[in-house]
Amino acid sequence: MLIAVQNEGQWQRLCRVVLDDPALLDDPAFASNTARVSHRELTERTVQERLGVLSTEEVIARLAKADVPYARLNQIGEVLRHPQAQATGRWSEATLPSGRSVRVVTSPLHRVPEPPGGRRVPALGSTPAKSSKN
């Protein structure tokens, strides 16, 4: 989980709603952004300890309720199964030199039509095939 506390109001809501520890607001180590940055290791450790006892779903619900910006980090398997990745055709099949078929990520910059016979992964040390457009 990435949390982006950008102002004092967000810090106060983080302490009260998300961490359920308003006493942190009276601690000199956390009294201002300058103090939190000066005590960065302590700040990060304190937040991690408080959130570490909660489920991911509970942390997300608290962050949303507190209106504190965050981003959830997905594991590789979650990324592969994410509905947006599925809906946008981010995966295609490629054939390894062994003949085995694997799923590969397509480029986010452009969509290249599947070549006749499908995508093939070149063997180690092989040279790229010449394009018929040359």
From TrEMBL:
This protein's record includes keyword Transferase: yes
Region (Disordered): 104-134
Keywords on record: Transferase
Family matches, as InterPro entries: CoA-transferase_III_domain (IPR050483), CoA-Trfase_fam_III (IPR003673), CoA-Trfase_III_dom3_sf (IPR044855), CoA-Trfase_III_dom_1_sf (IPR023606)
UniProt key word Cell membrane: no
A Pfam entry, by short name: CoA_transf_3
GO molecular function: CoA-transferase activity
Protein name: CoA transferase
Naturally occurring in which organism (per UniProt): Phytohabitans flavus
Lineage of origin: Bacteria, Bacillati, Actinomycetota, Actinomycetes, Micromonosporales
